[in-house]
Amino acid sequence: MVESAGIGALSIPVPGGAWLPASVAALQGVWGLQGLGPSVGSYRRWQVSPELFLATLAALSLVLALWWARGRRLELQRRIIQTLFRLGEDVSGAASPGEILRQMRAVLPRLLNISGVRLYIYNRVGNSLVEVEVNPEARPVSTPLDRPQGLVPSAAAACVRNAVLLAIPDVRRSPFRRRKGETDGIRALMLVPMMTQGEVRGVLVLHDRERVRPFSADEQLMAQHLANQAAIALRLMEEQTVHEQLSRTERLAVAGQLLSGVAGELRQPVENIVRMTESFLYRRRGPISEEEMRAIAVEAEKAAEILSRLVAFSQPERGQPKPVDLRDLLRNLVEFRRHDWIVRGIEAHEQIGHDPVWVLGSRGQLERVFLNLLMHAEQALADAPEKRMAVSLAVLGHRALVEVTYSAPAPRPRTAEDRSETSVLMEGLVRGIIQSHGGETRLVRLPDGSSRMEVELPLAPDRMGLRPALMGEGFKPRLATALLVEPDPGAREKLLSLLGRRGYRVVPVSSAEQGVDLVQRLRFDLVFCAAQLPGLN
Fold first, then answer.
1. Plot region of 449 (φ>0 → left; ψ -120 to 50 → alpha; else → beta)
2. Which of 256, 451, 473, 492 has minimal CB crowding within 10 Å?
3. For the segment 510-534, what is each residue's pLDDT rounded down to a tens digit?
4. Which DSSP string corresponds to 466-479?
């Protein structure tokens, strides 16, 4: 209690015996307390000066205020770092420079308290800086690196040449201002080089139109981090463009091989038609006979059939896959080529059975695949001493196996430039189509010097004759096509087995690049992708 209302000594009643002697001595030394004795009574009277008490309260208040301010500052820094990381992830996944600029303009002005953001891409071929626009229809402005015009382009050119960050607190004192009043309404400017693997790919420009301000070290560090993220995104865009160009070139090469094969098929019937018509026109030996007319009609029908197969293959089918009788397809192809085999002296045997074998897919594409395999066997047997060929069809489990065996060794490709027709067929066109149907292709060199081309295709789920209890009472087979992107062979085989039993037609690939290529050419209902992929993510 306080003894008097005026300014004087402050007395604090304390229960006796509640303090230890050590605590009392400490309080006497630190607080300057008086009247503390070792005797025990009902109450002790403690006297403290008001000035010391108020100073203690002020010190405690200051400590609490500093602790609260520190917590607020840490929370603000945590939010800034989270926003910065989120923006970096968005920038890394951007699909175009305009999208990068749009994402930065949506976040950076509020995050760094600036007025605007610009982005320049360094064009190495033209040795110039191209300003990025958010609107893709806007015409880009290019600035030569050796003759920049204007305050910001001049500073950006210097940033690229020196590959260093430039922070200009006051542009009126900047050496890049060549004329008085040339500030473009900007008061402060920071230019950050976008670096990746030691190369400058552009410049990130941050400007403030309202005040002169020095950019702190933390702000410069954050801006440099974002600029490097943008440079990585630009590098990924360039690599994706190069990959698409290479993939397009490979597809054109495969298409050239296909057209070359079709031209070889068409040459014989067209030459026969020309020979017979010339014989009729120039010899003038009377009206054409019915037998000659029938021969011309047969050759013309053969040429028309070749062209119809080519047109059916070249047109991509976007509808649902349909059941195809593989036995009927092979029987028609064997009958189609049998006459040529007899002319070339090829002894052909077929073992395709009598029961239909149903698979899901495009009949036109499968016809093109097996016709290419048969023609390859014919070409390989052209110089062989023994010309024997066998075509067989078997059902193994839930898959159909087609084998084309011929008594000639398959050539081995020596270099990437010297690739044989076998590698083009088995690794290019044929393999791509069979994989799109959920199958596999193999080229086997047998010990006796002959070769065998194998094609495996999954059977149609509704043609397997499976009981519902094997897959569950509520199971209904679906004609769905799924793309499986999995680099691990073991996991890929396990997922293939599981999805195949559930009625899906699965196309397995081991990399994202192969998956992107297939998605551009075929239609998929589902895509299963591994979480960790090498190369393109």
1. left
2. 473
3. 888 888 877 876 777 888 888 877 7
4. --HHHH-TT-----
